[in-house]
Amino acid sequence: MRYERRERRGFVRGFPPKPVEMGKEYDVDIQETSRRGEGITRIKGLVTFVPNTKPGDHVRIRITRISRRFAEAEVVGKAEEAPVEEAEAAEEEETEEGEAE
Q1: Side-chain half-sphere of 16: how many Cα atoms within 13 Å?
Q2: Cα–Cα distance between 49 and 89 in angstroms, integer?
Q3: Distances from the Cα of 72 to the Cαs of 46, 79, 96, 99, in angstroms?
């Protein structure tokens, strides 16, 4: 007896491609804490666990593991922020535009 494989019909349960890559670094804000005490952030919707962080931290992370539904990362340093002078210049431009209207 030979069995033929049938095509699956209906809803196929799969996972979309991951928005992160192994070893790549990202600047993120930690949003909440997991049950195990790790910081949680989301990169394009993918939950990412980061040990030794807490909500409000702005850090640079490196992806160490990618699973079906989540990723794990390690902290590699503080996230880069725009220099204060550039941030102040951008705020001044916004206020000038608002006054011109």
Answers
A1: 5
A2: 35
A3: 10, 17, 43, 46
Nearest-5° Cα angle at 29, 20 to 90: 105
73 three-class SS: strand
Tokens representing 25 are 């670094």
Q: What is the pLDDT along the chain (101 residues), one digit of tens a residue?
A: 666 666 666 666 676 788 999 999 999 999 999 999 999 999 999 999 999 999 999 999 999 999 999 999 999 998 887 554 444 545 555 555 555 55
Answer whether 67's CB lies under 8 Å from 20's CB.
Answer: no
Give CA–CA dist 52/13, Å, rounded: 34
pTM for the complete prediction? Answer: 0.66
Domains of the chain, start order: 17-95 (2.40.50.140)
